[in-house]
Specification:
8 strands, Spore Coat Polysaccharide Biosynthesis Protein SpsA, Chain A, alpha/beta, single chain, four-stranded parallel β-sheet, 21% strand
Amino acid sequence: MNGLHGIIFTYERRGNLQELGSIRSSASIPFGGRFRAVDFALSGLVNAGATDVGIILHGHYQSLLDHLGTGKDWDLSRKRGGLRLLPPFNYKGEWGAMPYRGHIEALTAVRTYLEEIRQDYVVMMDGDLVANLPLSDVYENHLKSGADITVVCANDSFMTEDGT
């Protein structure tokens, strides 16, 4: 264990996916045959050394549950830790129950899970990000920098030298 924990956020629906996201979460949209969008995040985390990953579910998640199973395909099927599927949630507002509006509310809903994290570092990412992120390098640079938080971001142009 290298002290790295992963949290993946899934969304019920993104507006720009139209029919693709009408019956499933955007993280479970098929990509290249048997793979799903969430596989990119899971593979990146496992390749970086994460042994514990929590997936925060939102809505239309049955397809995602069927795909993830016990996490065995990513070597995350363990008695302690491994892959944890965190139930969908909502909050009770002044006007009744409503779906969450962002990552902070999602994290608040799984606060007891967060309190049980054994690792010192947490990677948070979206489950519908289809990209090959070098998380090992990001993690190593974060440790060297001594920073409290490291954010990886890019514009939408894909016009970078190394393709990331």
